[in-house]
Amino acid sequence: MFMTHGTNPAADPRPPGDVIVGVDGSRASDSAVRWAARTAAERGRLLRILHGLGLTTAGLLLGSDRLGAADALDKLRRKADECVAGAVALARETAPELDIDTEVSDLGPARLLIEQSRSAHLVVLGVSGVGGALTRLGSTLTAVVAHGHGAIVVVRGADEQDPDLSARPVVVGVDGNPAGQAATRVAFAEADALGVPLVAVHTWSDLPVGGLPGAAPELDPMTEAEAQRTLQEQLARCQEQYPDVVIVRKVYLSGPRDRLIGWSRSAQLLVVGSRGRGGFRGLLLGSTSQTLVQQSHCPVMVVHQR
């Protein structure tokens, strides 16, 4: 498989670590494994396939029957080993020359992935379906996206058979807060590594489309100039570091969620910060990021400020 490290890998703010994927044997997990394997192979990175047993929870459920508990735990471990072996086979099918490491941990899957995210280049999980409350995505995914470190990728909506997928752009939501600035840096690094354009989307207001009473549906010239200036200020430093990345700037009056969901239909990756510019300090995952993880039509990378 052709390896690409981009034109300026030293500018990538993420650790030069491994690509980590959490697996549970589901179809969504398989999609995450394929995405992670391709990415690790293209970047020349080790792929680490992790499965968390959650033995503390299992022990509570099994109770005091030691003999029965031992038998049940043995079955649990065998099933975990089978799950990881299947993921390894799938990764090898996707990228035959890929270096792979595996771990079956006694920790719960969320805690395992959150801890490993501290030094990872990427952490990848899968989710199936579109829409629904965030809690329906699963407690592991919800916890890792909210509490993980660095870049967390939720694989969803990608048509792996689409011959034009590799030419689609990376799309980033730009809002100017620290987490958003980290997302912009990572988005440039992704576009550079993939050799595709970067679409930078900025909205003047966080209100939904039509949420500004009495306002025109589009930006007036003065407001558009202000929005363009804000966007340019946020992109300037990254442009210097990645001069070969082609940038498409898009500014809108409002509706960041709707705008980004719309752009996800034609993107190969959507990058957002973990918290929006209007987020509360204690809120680890902003409402826009939550919505995109639920409803995006392509993989979503949620970037936490380190």
Topology:
Layout: E1 19-22, H1 27-43, E2 47-52, H2 55-62, H3 66-94, E3 100-105, H4 109-116, E4 122-126, H5 139-147, E5 151-155, E6 170-173, H6 178-194, E7 198-203, H7 221-241, E8 247-252, H8 256-264, E9 269-273, H9 287-295, E10 300-303
Parallel strand pairs: 1-2, 1-4, 2-3, 4-5, 6-7, 6-9, 7-8, 9-10
Antiparallel strand pairs: 5-10
Helix pairs in contact: 1-3, 2-3, 4-5, 6-7, 8-9
Domain UspA: 19-156, 168-304
Family: Belongs to the universal stress protein A family.
Protein name: Universal stress protein
Features:
306 residues, alpha/beta, Rossmann fold, globular
For the largest beta sheet, what order do the strands appear in spatially? 3-2-1-4-5-10-9-6-7-8
Second rung of CATH, namely the architecture of the largest domain? 3-Layer(aba) Sandwich
| Large-scale geometry | globular
According to CATH, the homologous superfamily of the largest domain is: HUPs
Would you list the SSEs in sequence order as H and E? EHEHHEHEHEEHEHEHEHE
Q: How far apart lie the N and C ends?
A: 31 Å
Proportion of residues in β-strands: 15-25%
Integer average pLDDT: 85
CATH class of the largest domain: Alpha Beta
What does this molecule look like?
The longest helix is centred in the N-terminal third of the chain and has 29 residues, at 66-94. Residues 129-137 and 278-283 have low confidence and may be disordered. 42% of the residues lie in helices and 17% in strands. It has 9 helices and 10 strands. The protein is globular. The chain has 306 residues and is an alpha/beta fold. It folds into 2 domains: 15-60 and 67-157, Rossmann fold, CATH 3.40.50; 164-295, Rossmann fold, CATH 3.40.50.12370. Strand 7 (198-203), helix 7 and strand 8 (247-252) form a beta-alpha-beta unit. The two termini are 31 Å apart. Strands 3-2-1-4-5-10-9-6-7-8 form a 10-stranded mixed beta sheet, sandwiched between helices. It has helices at residues 27-43, 55-62, 66-94, 109-116, 139-147, 178-194, 221-241, 256-264, 287-295; strands at residues 19-22, 47-52, 100-105, 122-126, 151-155, 170-173, 198-203, 247-252, 269-273, 300-303. Helix 6 packs across helix 7 and helix 8 (256-264) runs parallel beside helix 9. It comes from Nocardia wallacei. This is Universal stress protein. Belongs to the universal stress protein A family. GO terms for molecular function: ATP binding. Keywords: ATP-binding, Nucleotide-binding.
